[in-house]
């Protein structure tokens, strides 16, 4: 009849609700399946496969294959500090040739860039040390003023590449294991023999084993710039000699990439006198001394060779009074 409204019965309503419920469940299941697919696509590559997919890591991939480390990096969870192709280009050709001829040495060097466990950049802290798969320690420094992160001497250029068994942080240099402490570096460098003699005379070699430590190491030429009478007076005064030598120490690690212009770090002398670091296009200077060789990594920090001896103001004043 005209105007009559058809009202669905109970069975019709039930069928419609069931169909709607089934459609909702189907949609939810499809959405869940799609999400799982996307997640699997994001995390389906292990560290090696992830490196293979990065053009900047082609040299590293070849060396990993040559050293027989592919299976190692596919098992377990790791953090890899991965030198880029540009980083390997900085390695002297003779060194690289020697490594290519010695798979064991090559493997040890590559394993020095690998840490067990997964660490994002946010997990890294200043002066943090890790024992690498090679068995030696590496040091992480986080410089908050410019956001730079270094691993030994290398700068992290691209962090937090995710693989399904860890993380990759690309670095701008190949990191070589240090051969010893500050004392070892000074002892083994003929250009630092006068500094070694002064440290020995002062009886403070153990002070240079502190960890962490930055040492601005005057070369033999730097000591030769001091007036001979002043140098003799200094060497004859144990207290002032110690103060002068410890004025060259900073009790934390300062790689050149983490320094900034007009930085004033405290030294380890008894007055915690501050040094004045300047950074410009000509390089790095500490007070009046120019850094001639930077970033010598050691097990307890870093050494920078400088071309002048740093003299605390009160010691300089004493010398001007002819040691009186």
From TrEMBL:
Q: Which residues form a coiled coil?
A: none
Can you give the residue ranges of the FAS1 domain? 44-175, 179-310
GO cellular component, alphabetical, reads:
extracellular space
Q: Which Pfam families match?
A: Fasciclin
> What's the domain of life for this entry?
Eukaryota
The name of this protein is FAS1 domain-containing protein
Instruction: Record the organism.
Output: Elysia crispata (lettuce slug)
Q: What is the lineage of its organism?
A: Eukaryota, Metazoa, Spiralia, Lophotrochozoa, Mollusca
């Amino acid at each position: 009849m005209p105007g009559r409204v058809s009202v669905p019965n109970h069975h019709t309503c039930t069928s419609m609700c069931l169909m709607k419920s089934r459609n909702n469940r189907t949609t939810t299941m499809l959405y869940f399946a799609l999400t799982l697919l996307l997640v699997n696509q994001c995390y389906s590559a292990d560290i090696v496969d992830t490196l293979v997919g990065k053009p900047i890591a082609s040299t590293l991939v070849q060396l990993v294959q040559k050293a027989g480390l592919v299976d190692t990096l596919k098992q377990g969870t790791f953090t890899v500090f991965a030198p880029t192709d540009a980083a390997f280009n900085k390695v002297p050709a003779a060194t690289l040739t020697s490594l290519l001829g010695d798979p064991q040495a090559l493997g040890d060097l590559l394993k020095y860039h690998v840490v067990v466990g997964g660490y994002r950049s946010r997990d890294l802290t200043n002066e943090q040390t890790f024992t690498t798969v090679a068995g030696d320690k590496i040091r992480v420094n986080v410089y908050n003023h410019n956001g730079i992160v270094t691993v030994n001497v290398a700068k992290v250029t691209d962090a937090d590449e995710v693989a399904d068994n860890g993380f990759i942080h690309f670095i701008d240099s190949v990191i070589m294991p240090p051969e010893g402490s500050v004392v070892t570096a000074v002892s083994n460098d003929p250009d630092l023999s006068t500094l070694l003699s002064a440290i020995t005379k002062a009886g403070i070699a153990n002070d240079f084993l502190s960890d962490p430590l930055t040492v601005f190491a005057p070369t033999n030429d730097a000591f030769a710039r001091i007036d001979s009478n002043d140098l003799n007076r200094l060497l004859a005064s144990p207290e002032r000699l110690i103060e002068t030598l410890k004025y060259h120490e900073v009790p934390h690690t300062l790689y050149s990439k983490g320094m900034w212009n007009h930085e004033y770090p405290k030294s380890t002398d008894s007055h915690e006198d501050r040094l004045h670091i300047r950074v410009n296009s000509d390089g790095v200077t500490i007070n009046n001394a120019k850094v001639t060789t930077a970033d010598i990594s050691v097990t307890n920090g870093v050494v920078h060779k400088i071309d002048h001896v740093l003299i605390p103001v009160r010691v300089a004043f004493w010398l001007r009074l002819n040691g009186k």
